[in-house]
Design goal:
alpha+beta, 5-stranded antiparallel β-sheet, 16 helices, flat
């Protein structure tokens, strides 16, 4: 048996060991867990955030790349249209008419032959290096019939800057019209010296299909551009090359004008790594110098391409060049690079038609900044907690020391009194007994308390079991009642719920003379959804329609599934004008909505208002007849009866 000690001795001996030390250890463990959990959560959140950002960046880049593909494909289709038109012209030696006013030509002071005035079509230039004979004069005049297509493409396409035909013997027909074109080109212009001509010849393009040039400086003074060019053959003779020009400015305004989050920046490079177009931030990031678009007084006599500093695969920054070479070779959609010590997330999308690449950069630190801020805030909070703990324990130690002295003189009598009062008080609140601790007063209290616990435990368990049983029965009844009135697919009220609501509204209309109305709505051609797509897609359409209808009805209206693809809306306190407006708005919103898989669909709606003497069946019958009438009128309409 344990030796008994006095309360005073026990308190003085154990208060520090049994009170302060365990509390201190617990708090230390809690703080350690706090910092560990914060660190773990920060790391996990950072990983999730980077993954989410990478995924979103890839989705945005992929969407924009598809947009670029579509626009470039459209230009290639325009080029094929020009090719067919111009080859037909050269194949028919008799073809000649003027779609606009008859052109006027003259010889320039520098010896070039050119079109004097704008008659609504293209400007024309014939190099002085060509002997101007009857055939050349006829070509300059009769090729006016090619202008309508050139004019139409330039005027309707937002990214095509100019369209032209360059012939083997030095003729250039270009739209829009350029005043005094010989002054721009000079007396001699060798078309075969330019990439927008020779890249379409038989050596470079034996398939005779549309091809894209790299970036070059336009001799017509439009600045840096790329061209989609096609060869124009008469049998196997190359009469010339036609092209459609896209300036770098039009690329920036219409193609690279992206709004990507996280302060991202985007640029386009060709298949060899040469930058075709870029946003201003890329120029600053790569420390690229500006390029002159045109030098006054100088003639461009051959292809002027961008310098090597604009090629990311031959950058003077060796580390950057190696990273970009890896990205090019791997064709990874998402990767990372380091530029001047800053890590960037890189998204890459390849335009298969041209081999061009749309590249977007997002600074990783900007993405992670919110996490860094939260991590720093967590550390500061942790340090404040530690400081508060130290202050608390200093005060608590002094307080406990004082209270222990007061307690020793007062504790024995209250414990003895409590022992007397608790003797036979109750019966049981727990199954565990309090063991003797060697303190006489407390041991008396423990024995009495144990007797009370044993008796109260049984009663408490029985009471808890009874309460749980009642709660379970109540919950089951509530669930069954709700399921009985709910459509399992759409989570709307079912036919039973609608019948109850309809009966209640009809009774209220009879008793208080309050009007109400019903809308019976049906999906048009719903069988054409289920048959080709299956009932699973049909169910998706019904759920989507149910969710849409919830947003369109009034708060006081009751919406439910009447059966199949039919939905019923019960509208209390409404007149004819109001219910017609509601029905028409619902029809229009469904007509505009894009549903999963099937896209567009329509609906028909039958409408009816309460009339004196109506029963629920009669108002529903009128709405059903109105719905049938709407179907007969061609569907996608509403009808009132």
């Amino acid at each position: 048996m344990q030796k008994s000690v006095t309360i005073q001795s026990l308190i003085y001996r154990n208060y520090l060991k049994n009170s302060l030390v365990p509390l201190l250890l617990i708090e230390v463990v809690i703080i350690a867990l706090y910092f560990a959990i914060n660190f773990y959560m920060s790391e996990k959140t950072q990983q999730v955030l980077l993954k989410e950002v990478s995924h979103n960046l890839q989705e945005v880049s992929s969407r924009e790349a598809n947009n670029i593909r579509n626009q470039l494909q459209a230009i290639s289709n325009y080029a094929l249209l020009i090719q067919r038109d111009q080859e037909s012209f050269f194949a028919d030696s008799e073809a000649c008419f003027f779609p606009y006013n008859a052109p006027a030509f003259s010889t320039h002071a520098n010896g070039a032959y050119y079109k004097l005035k704008d008659n609504g079509g293209s400007s024309v230039y014939y190099s002085s290096s060509s002997t101007l004979g009857e055939a050349q004069s006829r070509k300059a005049h009769c090729s006016e019939m090619l202008d309508p297509i050139l004019v139409s493409i330039v005027e309707t396409s937002p990214i095509v800057t100019q369209a032209y035909l360059n012939t083997w013997d030095g003729m250039n027909r270009i739209y829009p019209f350029i005043e005094d074109l010989p002054a721009q080109y000079g007396p001699v212009l060798h078309m075969q010296e330019f990439n927008f001509y020779y890249q379409a010849d038989s050596l470079h393009n034996p398939e005779r299909k549309p091809v894209w040039t790299g970036a070059y400086l336009d001799p017509a003074g439009q600045g840096w551009m790329v061209s989609n060019i096609v060869p124009i053959y008469r049998d196997d003779f190359l009469e010339g090359v036609s092209g459609l020009d896209l300036t770098i400015e039009s690329f920036l305004d219409n193609i690279l004008n992206l709004d990507i989050p996280w302060n991202a920046t985007t640029f386009m490079v060709d298949k060899n790594g040469m930058i075709l177009a870029m946003q201003a931030k890329i120029k600053e990031l790569l420390k690229l110098k500006g390029l002159n678009t045109y030098i006054e007084g100088e003639k461009i006599l051959t292809t002027l391409e961008k310098p090597d500093q604009y090629n990311i695969l031959s950058s003077e920054n060796g580390a950057f060049q190696q990273q970009m070479q890896f990205i090019f070779d791997s064709q990874l959609s998402i990767s990372k690079i380091n530029i001047d010590g800053i890590t960037y997330i890189v998204s890459q999308e390849v335009i298969q038609e041209t081999g061009w690449r749309l590249i977007s950069l997002v600074e990783e630190a900007l993405v992670l900044q919110p996490i860094v801020n939260i991590k720093q805030l967590s550390k500061e909070v942790g340090y404040l907690i530690i400081a508060a703990m130290l202050l608390f324990y200093a005060i608590f130690f002094l307080f406990l020391l004082r209270k222990s002295r007061q307690l020793t003189s007062r504790i024995a009598t209250p414990i003895e009194q409590l022992s007397t009062m608790t003797r036979g008080l109750g019966k049981n609140i727990g199954s565990q007994e309090i063991a003797e601790v060697g303190i006489v007063e407390i041991d008396h209290l423990s024995n009495n308390f144990n007797e009370m616990v044993d008796q109260l435990e049984t009663r408490t368990d029985a009471l808890v079991a009874l309460q749980l049983s009642e709660e379970v029965r109540a919950k089951e009844a509530e669930l069954l009642a709700r399921l009985a009135l709910t459509d399992s697919l759409t989570n709307l009220g079912n036919r039973r719920k609608l019948d109850k609501t309809l009966t209640a509204e009809n009774d209220r209309a009879i008793r208080f003379n309050h009007a109400y109305g019903v809308l019976l709505l049906d999906i048009d051609y719903f069988k054409q959804v289920n048959d080709p797509y299956g009932h699973q897609v049909g169910d998706q359409v019904l759920v989507e329609l149910a969710n849409l209808l919830k947003t369109l009805i009034r708060k006081t209206d009751t919406l439910g599934r009447w059966g199949g693809e039919e939905f019923l809306i019960i509208c209390p306190e409404i007149d004819q004008n109001g219910i017609l407006k509601l029905a028409e708005n619902i029809r229009e919103q469904i007509d505009c909505h894009q549903f999963p898989v099937i896209g567009h669909m329509t609906s028909s709606c039958g409408i009816s208002l309460y009339q004196v003497g109506d029963e629920p069946e009669s108002i529903i019958s009128r709405a059903d007849k109105a719905l049938y009438g709407a179907k007969c009128q061609g569907r996608n309409c509403t009808k009132f009866l």
